Amino acid sequence: SPNSRSKTSLGLVSIGSGRYYPPGQDFTYSYRITDEAGSALETSPRTRTYLDPRIQWETLSDGFITVYYHGGLRSRAGTILEATQQTLEAMGRVLEAQLTQPIRLIVYNSYADMAPALPFVSATYESALLTQGQAYAEQGVLLLFGGDRNIRGVTSHEVIHLLVHQAASSPLAQVPPWLNEGLAEYGNILPGAEYDRALQAAIRRGALSPLRNMAARPGNPDQVILFYGQSKS
Questions:
Q1: In whole angstroms, what separates CA 93 from the centre of its chain?
Q2: What is the pLDDT of residues 75-92, one digit of tens each?
Q3: What are the mean pLDDT values of the chain's consecutive 10-residue runs (233 residues total)?
Q4: Cα dist. 119→54, 57, 63, 93, 122 in Å?
Q5: Which of 68, 80, 139, 233 has the fewest CB atoms lying closer than 10 Å?
Q6: CA-wise closest residue to 4 among 35, 40, 42
């Protein structure tokens, strides 16, 4: 009340300063209220999905799968949903696994819209490689550039990463990057030819990377395409 002499303060507990959080991730929060006498009240936890606030999102869902799209492009969202379902059915048989947790596919119509939502990379790396899709397995989130001509293939590749994570990852052991990317291309319902061309060119030059050097994705953009080609092979 206006006549009250009590003081009120609000503090926010940091949820990871400097960390990157992809659009589509869930946050669980609660309030803890303490009065001057030291009595405390904590509210029940609530969960909210963080979405890019620059865009008015629409959704298309089926079971565990939700596609977030904008600009009224529902037909493209339907194509992405269908590619996701087809991939999960085919690779589910290979991995003997099924989707057990919800996944969200956040689809941007232009790369200019998508770029600010991605984690920071150097200007050199970004100019050499255009990010078509990015999987965040822990959060069950995919970011996709919906304007890519091979959106079905991009979707398929990234969805397999989520399935592999749910099927095989554990706190004690992680799937090696070459195997993760290799499976994603092996099961891709519409793969491109770029990785195969890079592999054949490296074979002719005698420039393949030893498997022991493929424990991490290369930092050199020129080596990334070959890494994918070798992983697929």
A1: 22
A2: 999 999 999 999 999 999
A3: 51 58 90 89 91 95 96 95 96 90 94 87 46 88 92 95 87 87 95 92 95 88 89 95
A4: 17, 21, 29, 33, 10
A5: 233
A6: 35
Single-letter residue type at 46: R
Task: Return the CA Rg of the chain.
Answer: 22
pTM for this predicted structure: 0.82
| DSSP secondary structure, 104-160, as one string | EEEEESSHHHHGGGSPP--HHHHHH----EEEETTTTEEEEETT-TTHHHHHHHHHH
Strand spans (E) along the chain: 26-29, 32-34, 40-42, 46-49, 58-62, 65-69, 103-108, 133-136, 141-145
